[in-house]
Amino acid sequence: MPALRPWLVRLHRWFGLGAALFLAIAGLTGAVIAWDHEIDAWLNPGFYRSAAVAHQRILSGAELADIIMQRHPDLHVRYVSQAAEPGHSNIMFVDPADPARPLGYNQIAVNPYSGDIQARRIWGALQIDRLHLLPFVYRLHYSLHLPEMGGFDTGIWLMGLTGIVWSLDCFIALWLAFPHWRQWRKSLAFRWQSGSYKLVFDLHRSGGVWLWGLLLVLALTSVSMNLNAQVMRPLVNWFSPLTPRIAEQRALPSFPANTAQPLSMGRAVELAQAEAARRGWSLPVGGIFWMTAQQAYGVGFFSPGQDHGQGPFGNSWLYLDALSGEVVGAEIAGQGSTGDLFMQTQFPLHSGRILGTGGRVLVSVLGLAVFGFSLTGFWIWLKKRTGRKFMRRSLNSL
């Protein structure tokens, strides 16, 4: 199909130029946030470390959440880990109890012995001081810190659309990398001694071929991370029916002022533990998530420190009605339709955690590679553009 190749070259060029800046940022930040917890803890030991209090036991996350909300009625705990790692604070996400009265922070570090708040910050704030650096980088990775406009999250959509373009361009780039199928070895080689342009070209083309499958996984999963409900779930559901999520089943308004009070987090954990025992689950409660719109608690089951996902399919969750304590939904790792299993693997694949520490190292390497491909692609375009301008000037001078 020789006639098709010029069109694909143009598509690859304009796709690449259009997405280069965004992919360079995503690649570089992705290489860093593969180790977000470790780097953040190293930068901010006062946020992550807690000293033991004599003659006091470590309080569970649910106990701490109830204590915090009693002591600070202006906030509501949205997420808490059930068990803090040894020597660590319990880090909670919080919301204002009254949306009309902002707190000025959305994340707190709590001493698990005393229940005292030892530090506060705005996770994801547009600040690059020591305390906010890693959350800043994390949010930059998936949204570029672009603001919402009329309820439309421009950054999330921009990076999601970039992921779609990148996914399509992976196939175009693979086709272009093999112009002559009988000489396929050249598309895998690097001309180390042939000058800077040829070497940069080979790093861009041959490097992309060697890493093609892994780059495609990153591209596709980036769409899942940003446009899960808008694009990926409807697409996957077309091939394999997906189990409706709790957010789709129970889109209810917030509690009216005259309703009964919801169960405490501690009571929700007790009920969830009983249900997990009935189902034969062996992992402990790892985290509790308050879902205002669904009037429900989400209770996750995983070991301490595994909140990002335990195993290739992530963590299992039970969802309880916040008033009755009735189980109203479940997401069970490794179970469900083919589509459910595919969706469960998206974050473990994107973060590399599906392969443990080695997978996170690989994701960091791939992030740097994406950054490099963006730079080399732009450099190749710039060199060719400069060459074409020089040729036109030479011809016009004749």
TrEMBL record:
The chain crosses the membrane at residues 156-178, 209-229, 361-382. It comes from the Bacteria. Keywords: Membrane, Transmembrane, Transmembrane helix. Pfam families: PepSY_TM. InterPro entries: PepSY-ass_TM. This is PepSY domain-containing protein. It comes from Undibacterium griseum.
